[in-house]
Specification:
Length: about 400
Amino acid sequence: MRKIWKLVLNDFISSSAIQAFNIYTIWYIAQITKDQKVVALFGSMGIINILLSPIGGVFADSHPKDQIIKTVSFIRSILFCLFFIIVLFQKDFRYAIILLAFMLSIISSFYTPAIESIVPNISADEKELFTNNTYINTANQLSSIIGAGIGGILVIIINPSLAYLLITVLMSISALFIMSFTTYMTKDSSKTNSHIPILSRKSVKKIIHNTKAVCSFPIIKVLLPYACLINLSFWLYYYLMPIYLSNQFTKYKFAYSLQEFIIAFSAFICGLILSKFSDYFLKKSYLYVFYLFMQSIGIVLMPLLFMLFTNELVKLVILIIAWFLYGIFNFLSGLIFITKIQQLVDNSRLGITFGIIFSIFGALGPISAGLSGFISQITSGIVFSIGSIMLLITIIMFFDKRIYKFLQ
């Protein structure tokens, strides 16, 4: 089997399993405990991955990447096996879930940089590098859809022992695919030095300096504050969904997993369409704020209509339309945001620019998850109010003339 396929299969199966684990677990916590604080604690574990990612990146640059991937894959499968044993013998395993999420977040900070940077080592030339990256990216997109689908099936199964057994089996299979994976060290990558400090005072100062430099770019200076506020309000809204949908749907218990599937599926469909009509949509980049406005409409629409209708089937249709609307316009706005930065920022600074931006965005999710723990009563009115923050921000953006200078 070609090395790239071993890598793709490992990443695809493990990503699908973790996506299914997150969906089922957050649904189970919401359904059984009805405690937003536990949901918040589970969601906020992702901040550890964000904080340790710089260390994981340095570690991946100074150690064999294939060994990192294999070691993390093996440790993950062992962790899930141990967790499954706890589920079998313990009735209340909420704290075991939090501990597992904590451990997964730590090791993921080493796995992700390694798997993102190993592809050049197994590519013969630039053409093969592009092809291999396409395989990896396609697998990531599909894993979101497949993981959401598996999560939906697990929700229907309900029994946590069977659900976590399936996830454990998937994680073990993914580890088996990667165990025979090896890659040859290049001259540069072979110069590892275990005595190099992982994160020195000098490197911390450099990170702070680079962050200030990136935030001073005109387009970043204008768009990033808006983007952060929109992301913060969205993630706060998102982490209320497990308990909120659990309360709204007593008949259709798969509503939360259906939400995840729709978000992933709409993004996948948009990706397919844009691959053929990308030029047309990029010429319409001046519609960026309108796209943000429309995704906010989807967010606000659902709780507003839930206050008007009580029939669960009607509400399920509303959920599908609302999240499909969000998924489509979120994909379009995200594409324009990234493309405009690529066009207006110097190529030599793009890597650090996107690294810092995505680190900031990545941190907002766990922060919002933590904030959601302070909300005790999750009603349609509360959810509508939080969604309205996104809508209000996009309305303000319509009147900010600075934005349209960058969208021309």
